[in-house]
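Researcher: Please predict.
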Amino acid sequence: MSLYQIFIEPWERHASAYWPILAMAFFVTAACGLVGNYLVLRRISLVGDAISHSVLPGIAIAFILTNSRSGPPMFIGALVAGVITTLIIEVLHSRTRIKQDAAIGITFSTMFAIGVILISLHGSHTDLDLDCVLFGKLDFLSSKEKIIMGLPGVALTMGMVALIVGCLIVLFYKELLVSSFDPNLAATIGISPRLVHYLLMCILSVVVVSAFTSVGAILVIAMLILPAATSYLLTDRLWVMMLFSLIHSFLSAIGGIHLAVAFKIPTAPATVVCGMIFFVAAWIFSPTHGLIRYWFRSRASVNGECIN
């Protein structure tokens, strides 16, 4: 393939058709990235993994009870499952000798297994596809009914979720900041760290559930962690970290669409791969935490010792 076919032709021929997918990819990655910043700072990134897997039984039970794959029942079932998962992890961690990582592993693997069993038993005669649950259906958005500016309803909903998440972070910036870095100080000045944690987990559940149908249970984990982890390597200021995570989300969405069109591959995995490329670049070239910076510091330290 020529450079023109790889870099130029996909945008000339397919830009309008892939606009809904690009918008949805950005909305999903941006919402996940904003919440993911706090997961990375609190060192609980795997909670996002747990919730993304644990919403599966909620979706299955909602389908069994309503015999419908419409949005509201699925959303409510998945949201309830996500909140229950958070509570189970917290109870196991705080009321037993089990550490948090073990509590997360126990909870999400059990919930996910229950969801797989329920879908296998009750979804065999429907198009409740387990592959879509695992990997999403981002590439099929362009076939949906278009509503405003060429965007399907699910993309508009995800955009609203991303906007609401951003507004909540702005409104409760101080509470989230203090409770993330120093829970004891937060309690001293009248902020309940436990309440903030539960509210953050509820927001995380909403984001995961909203993104679930597009990118699936597996890929949403990367979208929660990669923008935040990349930003964490580039800055020590939280508001700058938020800005970098949005930039990372936008570039990942564009890069993912480009790879998907140029090489005819699924969009969601391509978006994650692009996000990983940006993370590796930050890991190597970060001015404060990069490998090159670390190498220069090591050489300077060795040369200084040799001179002394």
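Model: Residues 26 and 253 are 5 Å apart (CA to CA).
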